[in-house]
Design a protein that fits this description.
CATH topology of the largest domain: Dihydrofolate Reductase, subunit A
Low-confidence stretches: 1-18, 229-274, 281-290
CATH architecture of the largest domain: 3-Layer(aba) Sandwich
Number of strands: 16
Number of helices: 11
Mean pLDDT: 80
Order of helices and strands: HEEHEHEHEHHEEHEHHEEEHEHEEEE
Largest sheet: 9 strands, mixed
Strand content: 15-25%
Length: 436
């Protein structure tokens, strides 16, 4: 705990340590982002503590599920300097005892005089921390930099508020919107840098969804293979535990699955016990990557997934979703779902089942038809497009039939970020009607 805050990578140190709420909360939001990809099914949370004079005293972030919460890490660093000070937290401190104790109580015991909260906790089991603090005479302010904190915690907040995983649809296309040439070839439209970025985003997700068309045409593995320096690997500094913890090391071994397939090490997969009950679990053991592999989900209405498909490799867990009346002899976990009115699978039922498995975030890579179905059902929360400086003029479009018959039905988006990546452009957008 002796590393100075000024040396921590990726965190800008305020030049003026005065009690500027927006300044300190902005720092807490940046801290929270360091936990992306390792906290599920918990939220990402950052905390900054200033002492009674307004000077920086401690900080922390929630690094992995089951590990100490951001407030506890920050209080540990602040020590006695926390007494009479202010805590800046991106999410309302919890008021319940789960795998760790209630953070509201920890703040009270430390003698914190004021707590500034960005976003109230929508989880009824954990909410109430603000009220508990107020009841004990602590000053509480809610809503500082709420939009920024919500954006950084969008996956978990969607999971809590809508009862389903947050869905990010990713696609790669030419400037004229083509995802493949006339002969079906698509490797590679985008640059190596863009493809590496996709692997980074995969590793941050709980599940990757693809359609059977993509599986049959491209035979993808759908695994996360980020570079060793990938930001998805935990940035555990002096404000967090140096032990990689259960999210990065160690894997509980499960027995054979009920369908005869072998379940492997579960590690800290979201909903590990629920996944285990279905015979699901990522690859584990010696040489395991320092990040967990997302669950692979194949949307396969008629159960056409071949037994030799790359998506069925032992590298990561796989769940094949089929129609409840489809016949299959696949010896892997199969999820039976009702058909939708459009003939495919009921995507709402699919996401509800994934939510029961504590899958918080989904990375949709399923091709034009499946993407169109998700868009038509209003189930896309974020769009990430990689646009290559190339033109095809013909070939497959990136998006299939999405329920748009007239311009008035257009799915309008709001740009959140436009970033050059290699020779390409990455655009991140969200539906314009999304509520915050």
């Amino acid at each position: 705990m002796d590393e100075p805050a000024q040396s921590r990578p990726g965190i800008a140190v305020p030049t003026n340590p005065a009690s500027d709420d927006a300044l300190h909360m902005a720092r807490a939001v940046r801290l929270a982002a360091l936990g992306r990809g390792t906290t599920s099914p918990n939220p990402v949370v950052g905390c900054v503590i200033v002492d009674a004079s307004g000077a920086h005293a401690g900080e922390g972030f929630h690094a992995y599920a089951g590990g100490p919460h951001a407030e506890v890490v920050a209080l540990s660093e602040a020590g006695e300097r926390a007494r009479g000070g202010t805590a800046y937290v991106t999410l309302e401190p919890c008021a319940h005892t789960g795998r760790t104790g209630p953070c509201a109580e920890a703040l009270l015991k430390a003698g914190i005089a004021r707590v500034v909260i960005a976003v109230p906790d929508p989880n009824p089991q954990a909410a109430g921390g603000a009220g508990q603090l107020r009841a004990h005479g602590v000053g509480v302010e809610v809503g500082v930099l709420a939009e920024e904190a919500e954006r950084g915690n969008a996956e978990w907040l969607t999971y809590m508020r809508k009862g389903r995983p947050h869905v990010t649809w990713k696609f790669a296309a030419t400037l004229d919107g083509r995802s493949a040439a006339e002969d079906g070839t698509s490797q590679w439209i985008t640059s190596p840098e863009a493809r590496a970025d996709v692997h980074r985003l995969r590793a941050e997700s709980d599940a990757i969804i693809a359609g059977i068309g993509t599986v049959l045409a491209d035979n993808p593995r759908l695994t996360a293979r980020p570079a060793p320096s990938s930001p998805t690997q935990p940035h555990l500094t002096a404000s967090g535990p140096t032990d990689p913890g259960p999210a990065q090391s160690g894997a509980a071994q499960a027995g054979p699955a009920s369908d005869g397939s072998a379940a492997t090490g579960l590690g800290s997969r979201p909903g590990a016990s629920r996944l285990a009950s279905r015979g699901l679990g990522p690859a584990g053991g010696a040489g395991r990557e320092p990040y967990r592999q997302p669950l692979r989900v194949v949307v396969d209405t008629e159960a056409r997934t071949p037994a030799h498909a790359g998506v069925l490799s032992a590298e990561a867990p796989t769940l094949v979703a089929v129609a409840d009346d489809a016949e299959t002899d696949l010896r892997i976990p199969v999820l039976r779902l009702p058909r939708s009115a459009h003939g495919g699978l009921d995507l709402h039922a699919l996401l509800a089942e994934l939510a029961r498995l504590e899958v918080v975030s989904v990375f949709l890579e399923g091709g034009a038809t499946l993407a169109g179905s998700f868009m038509r059902e209003g189930l896309v929360d974020r769009v990430i497009a990689y646009l290559a400086p190339a033109l095809l003029g013909s070939g497959s479009a990136a998006l299939g039939q999405a329920g748009v018959r007239t311009i008035a039905d257009t799915h309008r988006l709001v740009f959140e970020e436009v970033t050059p990546i290699g020779t390409d452009l990455r655009i991140i957008a969200r539906p314009a009607t999304e509520e915050h």
